[in-house]
Amino acid sequence: MQTKDILKNLFSLSFILSATLSWAQTWEVYDAELNLKNRLLYQDITLLSEDVRIGKTEEGFFLLNSNFEKSVSLEGKEIYQYLAPWILVKNESGIGAYHEYGQKVLELKYDEVEVFFNLLLAKKGNEYWVYERGKGTTRSLGILEEAYIGSRGQVITKRNGQYFLPLTSISHQAFDLIQDHGGDYLLAKNQNGYGLINMEGRIVLDLVIDTLLHTRGNFYYGFDEDQYLLVEGDPIKANVRYNSFHKITFEDGLMLEYIHGKLRRIMKEDGILLDDVGMTEVKLLEQDLYSIKYRDDKLGLLGRNGWLVTPTDSIAEIKKGSSGFFPALSLNGKWGFINSNGEWLIAPGFEGVQAFENEHAPFRSGNYWGLIDKSGNRKISPEWEEINITNDGIALAKKSGKIFLLNTQGNQIDEEGFEKICRLPNGLLLAKKGEKTGLISNNGEVKLSPIFDRLIPEGQFGYQASKDGKSGLVSEEGENLIPIAYEAILYDEFENLILAKSAYEPIILIEEESSKKKRKKGQ
Question: For this UniProt entry, which residues form the secretion signal (predicted)?
Fold first, then answer.
């Protein structure tokens, strides 16, 4: 072969290698001291869990070991979803599944895949399949109207308007209704009535109850023939915790019992919460919190464990409080704070108040908010559209679309304000000004100027900082730990590593001129 042919072939090889490698990416791996530990050649790396890492190359996707080396090849064009311990992959043919240990369990051909621990439910068109890891097999459930996995792993199907539990001992028994409410039991109905089914598919309350509704957890409200029932699920046999021939209503989470047409009892899911005469109105303010009014116009606040505020005749409305201070509306239409005995701690003189937080509470005058202390003294004047108190006592106040930091002495910490402020678990604040983000302390000290497109806390390593499409790592003091020059930064919290992604374009150059210089004259 002539020299020019060899050079021509080498140049062709150089072009092919360059074209291929130009698509690659290098990932620099840094240890806890930010020392460069390794370099990896992947287009992309995804950290799914402590033990599951995915690497992408031109050849496809791979499961990686703890050293980020390829261990198992995965089919598919994309990682569709990770639902431990299952990795769902997808290509133009459909969705398939791998176990996180690398075992392929579903071919890539399904429209949808639902998972629950060692169970997978797959759908293609109107046909469903189920894979049980304990059996290691995939079998068809047939053509169905609907199928899904319940909150405790029961597969529930619907065919011809009826419901079935195909993986249980009652798989061929049809039901008019099966409902999953997130507890340990399924509420079921057939032509005879309602009942309960446990996680294994055993009927623990015979389907004979006229009416049965879920209340909370594993508790149910029922009516059968002429009596009302409060039922608790049980793995062997459900228990009737309370029954009454008097009317018990259940609406919007509130259960009330009436005796001879008069309100007598407030019920909880397994029995009586309050038995008292003279009640005329009960409002459920939130779960386990009730406002109760009596015939003599007294008003009280009841909690799960008894009275939070004993009934008093000096208030028209009462709300949830804190630190022994309860927001209350007086009969003259002004708000203040009372104690658990219904006595005024802060006289009613405000148009609105919120609960105390760190010794201060927001109050409203007209359309604007300020702050008072527990003596009722105004600490911040009412000039703010909205005001909230952080856990460390700093107030976030909104005006004209900007958020400002205020201390509890009423002093404005920052002058210009921010478009958005987000409090971090370490007490610092991410603050957005314009389209840029910075970091400030709760006393207003600027830790990182708002010059970044994005800041993300990365454990002990500081903050992932992004700017102009590039990412790096900066400390709280503003030191560049890793230059903002990378395409992406990943924090492996399990191995305590930082992975930094950069473009890598190795090019093989063969200089024809060098070859020419070695030739002798005349050759």
Answer: 1-24
Q: Which two tokens stand for residue 247?
A: 């009317």
Q: What DSSP letter does each residue of 97-108 carry, written as one string?
A: EEETTS-EEEEE
99: exposed, middle or buried (Cβ count in 10 Å: 0-12, 13-18, 19+): middle
In three-state form (DSSP H/G/I as H, E/B as E, the rest C), the secondary structure along 54-79 is EEEECCEEEEECCCCCEEEEECCCEE
Angle at 47 between CA 43 and CA 48, to 5 degrees: 130
Please tell me whether residue 284 adopts helix, strand or coil conformation.
Answer: strand
SS3 helix, strand, coil % of the chain, rounded to 5? 5, 60, 35
Nearest to 345 by CA among 353, 354, 336: 336
Q: Chain centroid to CA 61: how far?
A: 28
pLDDT surpassing 50 at residue 518? no
CA distance 352 to 44: 54
- Provide the pLDDT for residue 504: 52
Distance CA 342, CA 328 (A): 9
Rounded Cα gap, residues 334 and 342, in angstroms: 15
The 10s digit of each residue's pLDDT in 62-90 is: 999 999 999 999 999 999 999 999 999 99
| 3-class DSSP state of 346 | strand
> What's the mean per-residue pLDDT of the chain?
90
Compute the residue count for the chain. Answer: 523
d(CA 25, CA 50): 23
Buried b (16+ CB within 10 A) or exposed e, 101-128: eeebbbebebeebbbbeebbbbbeeeeb
User: Which residues are CB-contacts of 366 (< 8 A; sequence separation ≥ 6)?
Assistant: 351, 382
- The helix or strand, by DSSP H or E, that contains position 298, with its residue range, turns out to be none
pLDDT, tens digit, 9 for 90 and up, residues 117-135: 999 999 999 999 999 999 9
Return the CA Rg of the chain: 33
The answer to whether 121 and 148 have CB atoms below 8 angstroms apart is yes
